[in-house]
TrEMBL record, chains A, B:
The keyword Plastid does not apply. Its cofactor is Zn(2+). SUPFAM superfamilies: Composite domain of metallo-dependent hydrolases (SSF51338), Metallo-dependent hydrolases (SSF51556). GO terms for molecular function: 5'-methylthioadenosine deaminase activity; metal ion binding; S-adenosylhomocysteine deaminase activity. Belongs to the metallo-dependent hydrolases superfamily. MTA/SAH deaminase family. Substrate binds at residues 98, 150, 190, 220, 305. Catalyzes the deamination of 5-methylthioadenosine and S-adenosyl-L-homocysteine into 5-methylthioinosine and S-inosyl-L-homocysteine, respectively. Is also able to deaminate adenosine. Pfam families: Amidohydro_1. InterPro entries: Amidohydro-rel, Deaminase_MtaD/DadD, Metal-dep_hydrolase_composite, Metal_Hydrolase, MTA/SAH_deaminase. Keywords: Hydrolase, Metal-binding, Zinc. It catalyses: S-adenosyl-L-homocysteine + H2O + H(+) = S-inosyl-L-homocysteine + NH4(+); S-methyl-5'-thioadenosine + H2O + H(+) = S-methyl-5'-thioinosine + NH4(+). It is an enzyme of class 3 (hydrolase). This is 5-methylthioadenosine/S-adenosylhomocysteine deaminase.
């Protein structure tokens, strides 16, 4: 049988949760799947197909990072309005600019973000935005793994509501399983405070009809929780539970303001929470109860949110921030230890996006993995490489990236996207948006 | 007159606090001092000396970062003991290894840290540790600006106390003003909980005798504050005030657990506080009242603490962490805005170390400055470059570094230290420490 093989020799591989979390040895990949990982060389002679040999010394291999919440195209607004009160930021900065966004803008803004994410070791991202066909095009071209969903604002006339829902469903059906399975889709009423209850129920019905998971913003700010109680007599979790949203496989973004009862409901329905510490701090939304969520058995993963409120898409930073912040807040230096932070950014992220066979370096898993250059001052001495990946490394330490067994970043350069063109287009688009 | 000139052409320069914080234009340096910064080209023909021309397009220039608290040699223990309770970490991990440190180990550990700092844009660092002659050697060789002080643990017999104090004073006198003024010194009783009151008073007297500023750890953990009250009937700030420490120009590290009265005392005596957010979170020490300190007029700067509790020396990360954390904690998204965070890491840092003419890009200031490569996906579009420096950049974006007008990092490579040798020695030293 002829196949495309890659063999990593003499590498160090991170296996968080294992008794020995740093394995020194070999990993082989065939046709997009990990076929071997262990201390011995897996085959002694070349097979019938082509074998690419990678010298793994000086490199640390880990699963590709999984970003479970974001709005990629908004990188066009990076640095456009910082240090402002949330409502001022939205009303005076974000909304007027977003209203000008064309499908073409979305394409280049998404390209900028996907380029940043791939170069920074993120191999899977969830994107909730508009003009999703253009987002899907970028995902297809770039080689990244993507979970895509049209985010729908529902306070509009019934006809517009119907058309938006139909569009979101059409997109989800068109692209689910596309790009050789690299693209999957979800359905997303934007948030309980931006969609009327009956409209959310229509999304739930559609998700049942087409067997799609659901994603929504939830309980990001104290104000929206209070508003939900005032309008509907329920806090957001109970409200969404009542509307049936949690009868679908679901992932909510933020989950900052939750009480014990809400945490118990999320755990009971196996609802994932995408924790976005950087964005939540920057917008002063608050600090999610991550330790309590995890103790209740809720799957907590990590998201960057958009570069407009972060202001980068470096998932190493979110991983470290989660590990540090919840120690400081809880007063417990053993909270969110390094292996757990790494799993939040990889294994738990993949599970939160309902991706099977993604997020770990193990036989049978999809070959989404990255290699860090560990022969650098800030990653020495090599005392505990898992600790270094979480507490010392950054996106800029990523040397190589593979998705689905295909190398997409080599020596820091993206092989699938035209970086020069994207950088130029991103700048031109921003300047043009200012003038429109 | 013959002199060494550098001229930056077509650069963008950060001037936080100015009406236009991003100046596009030119900067000239002669013999270590900034002689011009402005929109017009400063001279039309070469002078009598050598002029080095730097093309500043695609680069963002900012003052070199100032790290106001650390223990450089402890980078040898990076990743050696994470996610542990503070006392376990100290007793089982740090102290046994530090007890083995030789002067030679200190040399290589410090070299590793200085290499990391210079490559990451830190041009000045404070170091409080032992075997300080070897630390000074590294500072002299590397070209970095350094404020050095022997940290003295005082619970020991009188003779040992005297000898340690004498050694600390001797070091401070020998090296103050060395390396063409790049090295200055301070005196440091380690902390109120590690030094008896009468011993601290002897340091104060010596600081008066030799006109030296003082640096100490203070109020890092709740426990040490409680212990201070139990032993001496006073909280640490009142305790140190009573011992006369604040009659000297002083900088305290951490200042996490302070009440209103203590903050007022620090403000009254113009005591600087080195805020170490990464280390404080990681060790679960708590979160300093930075917004309250700043409102009271206390000068708050930034420190990494050692790489054993951080776990890197990336001051961009501390800057961003300070800007994000205090928004999230205060609930005010306008807290610690980007220009203020940048000044904490530059201008306020220099002032906290009693360095005149350091920390800003302005005529007459010492030419300590760095250049970031801003033509990268995560730093585009160029909407607000000051925001990008604080919220999006990292140590790895540093392209060039100058200290005292001399270039020490060029295209990411250190010109003054042997990186290959330092990396090898750091790893060997760690392995040897494990075996000793």
């Amino acid at each position: 049988m002829s196949s495309n093989r890659t063999l990593i020799r003499n590498g160090r591989f991170l296996i968080p949760g294992a008794e020995k979390p740093v394995l020194q040895g070999y990993m082989s990949i065939e046709d997009g799947t990990i076929t071997y990982i262990g201390t011995d060389e897996p085959w002694s002679e070349a097979g019938a197909g082509t074998t690419t040999i990678v010298d793994g010394s000086r490199l640390l291999f880990l699963p590709g990072l999984v970003n479970t919440h974001g709005h990629a195209a908004m990188s066009l607004l990076r640095g456009y309005g910082d240090d402002l009160a949330l409502q001022v930021w939205l009303r005076d900065k974000m909304w007027p600019m977003e209203a000008k966004f064309t499908a073409e803008d979305i394409y280049w803004g998404t390209s900028l973000s996907v380029l940043e994410m791939l170069k920074g070791g993120t191999t899977t991202f969830l994107d909730m935005y508009i003009h999703m066909d253009r987002v899907a095009e970028v995902a297809e071209l770039s080689g990244i793994r993507a979970v895509l969903t049209r985010g729908v604002l529902g306070h509009c006339p019934p006809q517009e509501q119907s058309s938006k829902l139909a569009g979101a469903v059409q997109f989800a059906r068109d692209w689910n399983g596309a790009a050789g399975g690299r693209i999957t889709t979800m359905l997303s009423p934007h948030a309980p405070y931006t969609c009327p209850p009956d409209y959310i129920m229509k999304f739930v019905q559609a998700a049942h009809d087409y067997d799609l998971p659901m994603h929504t913003h939830m309980s990001e700010t104290k104000r929206e929780v209070e508003q939900n109680v005032a309008e509907y007599g329920l806090r957001p979790v109970q409200h969404l539970e009542k509307l049936g949203l949690f009868t679908r496989p679901s992932l909510v973004a933020h989950g900052v303001h939750l009480n014990d009862e809400e945490i118990a409901i999320l755990a009971r329905h196996e609802v994932g929470v995408s924790h976005n510490p950087g964005s939540n701090l920057k917008l002063a939304s608050g600090i999610a109860r991550v330790v309590d969520l995890q103790q209740a058995g809720v799957k907590v993963s990590l998201g960057t949110d958009s570069a407009a409120s972060n202001n980068n898409l470096d998932l190493f930073e979110e991983m470290r921030l989660a590990a540090l912040l919840h120690k400081g807040i809880s007063g417990d230096p053993t909270a969110v230890p390094a292996p757990e932070a790494l799993r939040m950014a990889t294994e738990y992220g993949a599970a939160s996006l309902f991706l099977k066979d993604v997020g770990r370096l193990a036989v049978g898993m999809k070959a989404d993995f990255i290699a860090l250059d560990i022969d650098q001052p800030h990653l020495l001495p090599h005392s505990d490489l898992l600790s270094h990946a979480v507490y010392s490394a950054s996106a800029r330490d990523v040397e190589h990236v593979w998705v689905d067994g295909k190398q997409v970043v080599k020596h820091g350069a993206c092989l699938t996207l035209d970086e020069e063109a994207i950088r130029r287009k991103a700048q031109e688009t921003f300047e043009s948006l200012l003038k429109r």
